[in-house]
Amino acid sequence: MEKYEDIKTFDELIELEYGKIGTENRNKYEEGAQMFIVSEMLKEARKAANLTQEQLAEKAGTKKSYISKLENAKGNIQLSTLIRIFEQGLNRKIGLTFL
Q1: Please, where are the H alpha helices in the chain?
Q2: Which of 22, 52, 58, 86 sits most deeply, having the most CB atoms within 10 A of its CB?
């Protein structure tokens, strides 16, 4: 617990646990965190549309198992596929921000 005594912000905690921005370990953490966010957004949007994973997959031209993997943050996704799932499957637009 001593290593956490001087931690005052979430960013400091993340840096302590995963390293500075740009390091391999931190990059892996950031990638996983972003995938988790996308997976939760997809799951929430699908439920709001009252669709099952199977129905969404059919509308988006993919497989239920792929939707399941994405919703569980277990699969990699191409941007074009993500756009197709949201636009064709959920009738939603995607906005991207690069920092």
Answers
A1: 10-18, 24-48, 53-60, 64-71, 79-84, 90
A2: 86
Half-sphere exposure of 88 (CA within 13 A, CB side): 13
Structure tokens at 43: 């799951």
1.10.260.40, 3.30.930.10, 2.60.120.10, 2.40.50.100: which CATH number matches 2-90? 1.10.260.40
Please name the residues in contact with 20: beta carbons below 8 A apart, sequence gap of 6 or more. Answer: 26
Q: Check residue 19 and give left, alpha or beta (phi > 0: left; psi -120 to 50: alpha).
A: left
Please check whether residue 53 is in contact with residue 67, taking contact to mean a CB–CB distance below 8 angstroms: yes
According to DSSP, residue 87 is labeled I
20-41 pLDDT, tens digit each = 999 999 999 999 999 999 999 9
